[in-house]
Fold this sequence. Notes:
Among the domains are: 145 residues, no CATH class; 118 residues, no CATH class; 113 residues, no CATH class. Helix content is 54%, strand content 13%. The strands form 3 sheets. Strands 8, 9, 10, 12 and 13 form a 5-stranded mixed sheet that branches. Strands 4-1-7-11 form a 4-stranded mixed sheet. It has a 4-stranded antiparallel sheet with strand order 3-2-5-6, with no helix packed on it. A hairpin with a 2-residue loop joins strand 8 and strand 9. Helix 9 runs antiparallel to helix 10, helix 11 runs antiparallel to helix 12 and helix 16 runs parallel beside helix 18. The radius of gyration is 31 Å and the shape is globular.
Amino acid sequence: MSAPSTSVRRGLVFLAIILGCALAVVAMLRNAASVQEVVFVNGLDFTVQVSAGSERFPLKRNEHRVRAFPEGALDITVTRDGVPLAQDMVLLPEGGGHFVYNVLGAAPLYVSNVVYSRNANAAPEPEPRPLLGTPFERVSRVDFVLTEPPSRISMSKNSRGAVTRVRLGRIDGDWVTRFNWLMTSGHTAEAHRLADTLARALPDMKEAKELALFSRMSLDDGEGSHAVVATARDWRDANPDSLDAHRLWAYQMRRAGRLDEVRAHYTAELASHPDSVLMAILLARTEPGREALARVEALYRAHPDDLRVRRALAMFYVREQQWAEALPLFTALASDDPEYMERYADAHDEVLVGLGRREEAEKRAAERLPPFDAKTPTPWNELLQLARFRGKLALTGANSPLKQYVSHVAVEDKVIGALLRTWLAASMGEHVSGDDLRMVPAELPRRSAAVILAALQEGPEAAAGPIASADTRAFHFMGSEVGILLAAEFERLGDSALAARTLDVSRAELGFAELQDVVRGTRDVDSLVSLRGEERAALLLVVARRQDAQGVRSTETYARVKKLAPLPGAVTIALSKWPRPKPVGAVAGAPVP
């Protein structure tokens, strides 16, 4: 039999080559399909070393790296200077997508849609979705990984409608930013997990421990006051020299209506440690005004250079509205207290207002605003404070810093600009634009605050609806005096259930039984030693309304309310816009006493 011809042999060789190439391509495709990409992100303030599978690499502060790994289990270890921070075994399953390993969960990452159309630039989602869960998460598909998306993309001439792309982004800030974001968006469990993870991995990080405690107590709320008090007591016992730890425990005890136990505890502690400045201050915080002030003044004479004593005496003078005595203490704190700007600058302004120096307080508030810069976050609370000192929300005029900031926010984001205008107007008791309110998503806590404050202008009955579904996040943007005012008025009107709920979500440092006693006239407002001026004014206003309804003279009570609440806010809104109750059995048209 003759050998195959040369042409046949060449054909077989060529066919074998084609088959080999095909098999190689298939193998390559199968191998590519079995590889997954992981984005490593470091949101900590220092460089860490990452060991993932066979990969070893450093990850600097705010840095991210993308690495590919085969499908299946992947061991990840993160260290700092050889000290382990995290050890995880994660699973890279089939199916593609992107996987994100966020070291200790610290970086504030989010996913958002970017929508393109033929006749418009990219339009990002107004509200990005924060990444939740553990530090390791799977994102189904990402087109832009921690990069700015292009303003336009090439689209087919035949394409219609819009094209959506997915962006993995990061907002400015650190892990505290992510913590606050999770808390204000209602993801309390995830916020606690973040802070607790950091506190365990970095035991010297005090802020992580404190925020883990705060989020833990927020979770404990669902189990009742006993669980919250127990958590606060454990923190107090673990930090016996911390004023803040003791104040937190006392705050939770007061909310539970157990102030007498707090006073007894610190009385016993001071008896055991008579030279303890801390115990003396803490006991004074549980005592009536004159008794407390005398104790702290004696402490100041004995320890004039103790910063804790000077702070305490300054704040006690504010509580008693002894403005002239308070001013030199605050002036001194402004020069040598590292926590002055964070904790005492607003109280200093209050002193100036009490002394009739309102313009000076306004000037100070304006000076505290950061330089007007597109890269500087807008200080919403500082804007409101400035508006309150001015007495009105001035959004006109070329030199108005309020107008500059609000306009800047509106240019950056129309929805957020509408929210800022709405919240400021409602907080000041001014007209709230329905068009602005309709632009803002209903789930935003600051919008809920604006809705409640706007309803407050129409009366307590109008506020009952939105307050019934409000949560603690909304009160973060209103102030506890709103909760005290509405809770007391609901109690006066006979709705104890709504009153109790309102007081609870407001987080006011006041027990419900104490509020009931004041509303019923069996307890004096001045006996509630923990209340700030505006909170006391809120309770006194309801006392005055009870006096009106009883036909009792209320002139002096209203005068005290006005003295305690000199700036625009919930109390002044109610004073000016709520009709005064008629005495029971009064004739229609009869004057209010």
